[in-house]
Amino acid sequence: MSRYYDQVLTVWNYLKLQQSLKPTDAILLLGSSDLRVGERAAELYHQGIAPLVIFSGGVGRMTDGLFDQPEAEVFAKMAMDCGVPHHAILQEAKSTNSGENIVFTRELLTAKGIEINTVTLVQKPYMERRALATCEQYWPQVQAQVTSPQYDFLDYCSPLHPSSEVINLMIGELERLQHYPELGFCTPQSWPEEMTNIMQSLIAIGYDEQIL
């Protein structure tokens, strides 16, 4: 392993909160390009984490051209294929980013007369921290927890999601967490002292596969 691998893991472990989960009123999958996120949502339903699963997502930057349907429809179908009953599913198929996932889901629930107090967010591992921070910003009345497909960094990477791409996306997450609070897009986050130097180091080598 390259000497940069420890830096990659530091970033991964900062972004992936690894919270212990409790039962909630609903599961909310925030739009994603990774089908494993849908599998995780179905798994949580069968574990009894919540009786309602909401799939939120239209066509986002990473799914434009990848799916021939809105993200919500793709993941709802996957969940039903995994045994989640139709009556336990809601779809919000307009949102194009994380903030809209939350805002449009709130509007959907209000329109249907559904009130929830707790929610389990589901996203990709390296998006856990920002997903939770976004929910805290746009939906502070709800107590949220977050989870993702249960992989460590090397197991998560695949031919479809190569390590160079994942590292690139993780650096993008760090940059958003730095700047989004001042724009009102998410709540401020603690910032480990070494993170800025790690970012600069990984950016300098261009997220190359050779770091592993």
Q: Major beta sheet, specifics?
A: 5 strands, parallel
Oligomeric state as shown: single chain
CATH topology name, in short, is: Rossmann fold
CATH domain class: Alpha Beta
Q: How many DSSP H or I helices?
A: 8
Order of helices and strands: HEHEHEHEHEHHH
In round numbers, the mean pLDDT is 91
Rg is 17 Å
Description:
This protein is of the alpha/beta class and 212 residues long. Helices cover 44% and strands 11% of the residues. It has a single domain (5-211), classed as Rossmann fold, CATH 3.40.50.620. Strands 3-2-1-4-5 form a 5-stranded parallel beta sheet, sandwiched between helices. Strand 1 (26-30), helix 2 (35-46) and strand 2 (53-56) form a beta-alpha-beta unit.
Write a brief caption for the model.
The protein is α/β, with parallel strands linked by helices.
Structural topology:
Layout: H1 5-15, E1 26-30, H2 35-46, E2 53-56, H3 71-81, E3 89-92, H4 98-111, E4 118-122, H5 128-138, E5 143-147, H6 153-156, H7 163-183, H8 195-204
Parallel strand pairs: 1-2, 1-4, 2-3, 4-5
List keywords for this structure.
single chain, alpha/beta, Rossmann fold, globular
